[in-house]
Write a structure and sequence with these properties.
Elements lengths: L4 E4 L7 E2 L11 E5 L5 E4 L4 E4 L5 E10 L5 E11 L19
């Protein structure tokens, strides 16, 4: 199973490497769906990586298929949060006369 993870928006996720073999030791192929914007799957390295750019909860589905067409489905969640407070420029104190 792949562990769920939570990350700050515009911060890279922890890379997820998909490992799998069928019962005869042959490699499997993976199809990945549901990734947040900014996160991708590289089939050459079997790695999910990237920097999510949109806040939300994303249910990611991985379908692994062996040469015989047998499949296994794995689901995990990437939660993208924005917990950083905004920066506000200081406002100077002001003094004024009444009725002016």
């Amino acid at each position: 199973p792949v562990e769920d993870q939570t990350t700050e928006v515009n911060t890279p996720i922890k890379d997820v490497t998909l490992n799998g073999k069928d019962n005869s030791g042959q490699p499997v192929t993976h199809e990945v769906s549901g990734l947040p914007e900014g996160v991708t799957y590289d089939p050459e390295t079997n790695t999910i990586s990237g920097t999510p750019t949109t806040v939300g909860s994303y249910d990611v589905t991985v379908v692994s298929t062996d040469e015989s067409g047998n499949t296994t489905e794995t689901t995990f969640t990437i939660t993208v949060e924005d917990t950083t407070a905004p920066d506000v420029d200081p406002v100077e104190d002001q003094t004024t006369e009444v009725n002016t």
